[in-house]
Each structure stands twice: as structure tokens, then as C-alpha cells.
Design a protein that fits this description.
Blueprint lengths: L2 E4 L2 E4 L2 E5 L13 H5 L9 H10 L4 H9 L4 E5 L3 H13 L2 E5 L9 H6 L5 H10 L3 E2 L5 H7 L7 E6 L2 H10 L4 E8 L6 E4 L3 H5 L2
Parallel strand pairs: 5-9, 6-9
Antiparallel strand pairs: 1-2, 3-7, 3-8, 4-7, 5-8
Helix pairs in contact: 4-6
Length: 205
């Protein structure tokens, strides 16, 4: 069980597990069919489109069964509001805040490159504007922020659970790719503090 120490005393916290199968497409700038025929951006080449399609066609049945089996305390599918948009709504409804480690969030190859080229849809920009009053972005650049707010999703799961080991075992046992991206905290309900950098940005010179 994840536990966080707050300024107000000890508080039990939920681990936040981001399923990196179908939900990972929230970090992918999805090209139109014409783009697939004649790519305008060299980062969308080779196996990257195929990798995006592979995660998009995966179902959530096994992941949801694992979450229920491990006693998940909260769960939502990540769709048009993006990863942090759906997290913020879940936090507000639950009366807690969260700390997220950006370096733990899985991102498909080429996604951050596209954001840096300003290949960003209007929905993602609106998500980002909505989050500005509730998210402390820490060291993230604007392209990194946009990736975490990306509206292009295929409905993977964001799960909160008190028993991290149990949840990890259930997910792994069903062959589900997942990532532990942060914890909930008692202070500042409905808000998100982001630490770290997305992996590609952290490794850049």
C-alpha cells in the first residue's frame, strides 16, 4: 500500500496505475487517413503507426477484471479529456489531490516529437487550458504538458488502489502492460502536482 506523509499528518494514499495498453494512445498524435498515405511529418513513419494501432485495438476487459479483483477504489476510462483531465475529475469527485511522476508515464515513440512540431489538435489545447488552474506542471515544457493532456485516446484505464502489490500482481498475472505513475494526497483536493520529465525530454541534451 502506498503511503504519503503530508504536512497535516500521515495519510493513506492510492497508487495510480496507468494502463499502458489501449490507454497509451492518449499520448499519440493520430494522423488522418490522408496523412497515412502521404506523411507530412517524418516522425510518423515505419512501425510507429502500427504500434499506435496495436494499442488502440486492445480491449479493457482483462484490465477491468484485474482492477475489480484487486479491490480498486476508483477507476475511469481515459477518453477525450486526456490522462490528466480524467485524473483531475476523478480527484475532484473523491476529495483528494495527486502527485504524478511524468517520467513514469509511458509514451509511444514519436509522440513528443509531434508535439514539439506543434502537431496538436484543438481538443488537446482545450484540455490544457482547462487544466491550467488545477495542475502544477513543474519542469515540463509546453509540448510535454500537451502530451499529458492529449485528447486523442482509445479509452484505456486509470486505476486507484490502496494495495499496490495486489493490484500489480493482478495486472501482471493477466499479461497487462501497466505503469505506476503517482499517488493521491489529502491536501488540495482536485489538484495535480507533476514532477519529473517525460522520458524522451529528460534524455534530450
Amino acid at each position: 500500500m502506498a503511503s504519503e506523509e503530508s504536512t497535516e499528518g500521515s495519510v493513506s494514499s492510492c497508487s495510480l496505475a496507468r494502463i499502458s495498453s489501449s490507454e497509451a494512445t492518449s499520448d499519440f498524435a493520430h494522423p488522418s487517413r490522408s496523412d497515412l498515405r502521404e506523411p507530412q511529418h517524418p516522425v510518423v513513419v515505419g512501425g510507429r503507426v502500427a504500434a499506435a494501432v496495436a494499442v488502440m485495438v486492445e480491449l479493457n476487459a482483462a484490465a477491468s477484471a484485474a482492477a475489480l479483483g484487486a479491490g480498486a477504489h476508483a477507476m475511469t476510462d481515459v477518453t477525450g479529456f486526456g490522462l490528466l483531465g480524467h485524473l483531475q475529475r476523478m480527484l475532484a469527485a473523491s476529495g483528494v489531490g495527486a502527485r504524478i511522476d511524468a517520467s513514469a508515464v509511458p509514451v509511444l515513440a514519436g509522440v513528443l516529437d509531434l508535439a514539439m512540431l506543434d502537431v496538436v489538435p484543438g481538443g488537446t489545447q482545450r484540455n490544457h487550458a482547462y487544466l491550467c488552474s488545477t495542475v502544477q506542471w513543474g519542469p515540463l515544457s509546453l509540448p510535454e504538458q500537451l502530451v499529458l493532456a492529449d485528447a486523442q485516446t482509445s479509452g484505456g484505464l486509470l486505476i486507484a488502489a490502496l494495495d499496490h502489490e495486489w493490484m500489480a500482481g493482478e495486472l501482471t498475472g493477466r499479461g497487462i502492460a501497466w505503469a505506476d505513475i503517482g499517488v493521491t494526497v489529502a491536501e488540495r483536493p482536485g489538484t495535480i502536482d507533476v514532477t519529473g520529465r517525460l522520458a524522451h525530454a529528460a534524455s534530450a541534451p
